[in-house]
Amino acid sequence: MNAPLPKPTHSSVLSALAPGDSGTISAISGSLGIRRRLLEMGLCPGIQASVIRRAPLGDPIEIRVRGYCLSLRLDQAAQISIAVAQPAMVATR
């Protein structure tokens, strides 16, 4: 049987993603207080997150996680490592 190939991923931080990009949270860094606060908001490793939009000056960003929208400052979003799925390559003839 032919199983679909997994999409290649690359690692980034949530603050570097553009609106419309999404991925899976892989780690949360920073001080204990920041990590605890982000975990309390539902930002846990293994959870899917997507960037909805950015404020006009770029800070804060709005993300969708666990079915709700959440606004984060860029310094908070920079503490969240995320595995971003690359679109599948299409062969051309």
What does this entry look like structurally?
The mean pLDDT is 84. By secondary structure, the chain is mainly beta. A 6-stranded antiparallel β-sheet has the order 1-6-2-3-4-5. It has 2 helices and 6 strands. It has a single domain (9-85), classed as SH3 type barrels (Roll). The chain is globular, with a radius of gyration of 15 Å.
* Biggest sheet record: 6 strands, antiparallel
Give the beta-strand count.
Answer: 6
Q: Per CATH, what is the topology?
A: SH3 type barrels
Structural class: mainly beta
Mean pLDDT: 84
Which percent range fits the helix content? Answer: 10-25%
How many helix segments? Answer: 2
Summarize the structure.
The protein has about 90 residues and is mostly beta strands. It has helices spanning about 30-40, 75; strands at about 10-15, 20-30, 50-55, 60-65, 70, 80-85.
